[in-house]
Design a protein that fits this description.
Chains A, B: This is LacI family transcriptional regulator. 2 copies of one chain form a homodimer. By secondary structure, chain A is α/β, with parallel strands linked by helices. Chain A is built from 12 helices and 12 strands. The radius of gyration of chain A is 26 Å and the shape is elongated. Strand 2 of chain A pairs antiparallel with strand 2 (96-101) of chain B. The structure holds a DNA duplex (16 and 16 nucleotides).
Amino acid sequence: MQRDKLPTIKEIAKRLKVSTSTVSRALHNHPSIGYITTYRVHKLAEELGYEPNLTAISFKQRKTYTIGVVLPNLSEAFFSTAISGIEDFAATKNYNVLLGQSLDDPEREKRIIETMKTHRVDGMIVSITKNTDNYDHFDQLTKYHIPIVFFDRIPEKKDISYVACNLESGLLQALNLLIEQGHRKIGLINGPDQLIASNQRKETYLKGLTDNNIKPDEKLMVSSSLSKESNQQATSSLLELKDRPTAIITFNDYVALDAIAIAKKHGLVINKDVSIISFANLPIWEYMDNRPLASIEQFPYRQGEKASEILFSFIESQSSTDESTEPLSNQQIIFDSELIKHL
Amino acid sequence: MQRDKLPTIKEIAKRLKVSTSTVSRALHNHPSIGYITTYRVHKLAEELGYEPNLTAISFKQRKTYTIGVVLPNLSEAFFSTAISGIEDFAATKNYNVLLGQSLDDPEREKRIIETMKTHRVDGMIVSITKNTDNYDHFDQLTKYHIPIVFFDRIPEKKDISYVACNLESGLLQALNLLIEQGHRKIGLINGPDQLIASNQRKETYLKGLTDNNIKPDEKLMVSSSLSKESNQQATSSLLELKDRPTAIITFNDYVALDAIAIAKKHGLVINKDVSIISFANLPIWEYMDNRPLASIEQFPYRQGEKASEILFSFIESQSSTDESTEPLSNQQIIFDSELIKHL
DNA sequence: TTGTAGGCGTTATCAC
DNA sequence: GTGATAACGCCTACAA
């Protein structure tokens, strides 16, 4: 009962009184198999409702037709959009996507990577945890020849492939826009110091100001741990300066939400008394009344697509029988962020 | 090079001059294996960095330790939250999650279901497409003894397991709240007629009104295809009635966003001139100035958890060797929605 | 054009 | 306690 056998290649072979290899080849339309045989096999397969057993194929071929995707958090629009891009691309290759959420917990991340490794995924796309500082579990993957493409949150490590977004372009556009509009005191609410993302923002911010002959003011640069309270406090500290900024650039949209709320509490009118520009992760600013002047867009969907594209180039090169081709070298793709104004 | 062999049970056996069966048993701490042997096996396995090959195990055991999850759209907060619940639960069982997005395209849904079937997932959680009207691909799953739990968007079909949310409770609370506040002309912007979800809303709406001795007014009930334009048009049609509603209940938050925008264009003050209540799918109303008075919450995370729980009860009952236990019967769980006021 | 046979890594059923 | 062996479903040299 439990074991009412599903049709297999063997079954078809038996009924047709041919060998399993013939059936296998016929099903793959191997040219060496005669037309009639091929036809009969296909026909019977159809009748029996035969479907190849991928677990057997995976086992035999050492390929699972599955990629693993590990992201910090699916509930962030940035990541859920990215995974759409990944999933779409994988679908075109007839691949499935094994999903894991690290929830920014390095231990959990490690566990996920490991179970995906035992699943023998053909490749992985990973956006690391905020706190990942040990990359051993990633190195382990090379042992299994599992290619990995990092994405957005990438480790500080040489010889890896990744897709990320260059915050510089968008941020410089943002600064230019603000400066054009006459702003001279432009604040920055940055993220935690240990994040690369924070450093990038800070450096570009400094560069953008000095390029425009504005002397950066230490007091205008604050950090937030990205909790709501911290965001609010950072905003307050800026707005309560006796020489308060007339524009603020925030680490991301969530910070912007809190900043906007606090600014309003201070009786300020958004984008009039204080202009806000932030790094995009929300899809619905258009619906909000008090929204940033503009967002620095990072194109998560396209990034996801691109990461998949690179990953599949590895996967496909691996399975190419051509032994002579040398291994593909790592690729680092950096998208330019872009300033999108909210009208 | 390509084939630098990974350590296997066989390798360990050879080195230790024992049989593979001994190694296998030792690794599982089988009681019949001597303490010393067990120890030596574990030690060598560790040294070699042995890791079980799940593809082989899946093949042999007819279990993949993977569940498939098919959702219409990950970029909707409702679903991305739900999948968190599913993923968390699966993780406790050491299961992986194979993800597919149907994007509300029945063809795509069918394809996903099929590839998951060939992957031999141990079970599936599915929220069907808006347009799914053929359930053959689901029936196919029973052939492979793949249990399936439907979730939120469930097919009209007997003998299935599902987890869904009873909209009635929350919607009645919403109506009561509005009526308490003195509203008598309460509009409904519903979704497409063919959706069960729309019918449920409509029926409950009618019931809520009549229970409160308010005679439903056909003109106050409109439908939207859920596109932005359609939402706007539906809202306008309500607001331009000479006897316009003083409160509107919308099909979901996205409709509410459009409705609010249009209401403002009509010069109305939200929740003063016209109160809005909607079915929740957005996480960030708290940041918005013009937000609904309240949302009808459907607890996606908990629903996802519950769906997983049911699914795993099936999965685990299947693998129980006890032949005598009769198959678990289907379960239908219905959560109560709840009205959450936005202060 | 088709068949034979071996093997992928693991577990399970017998034996001993 | 431990070992031999078959089996899971499929693919692929190698033969014929």
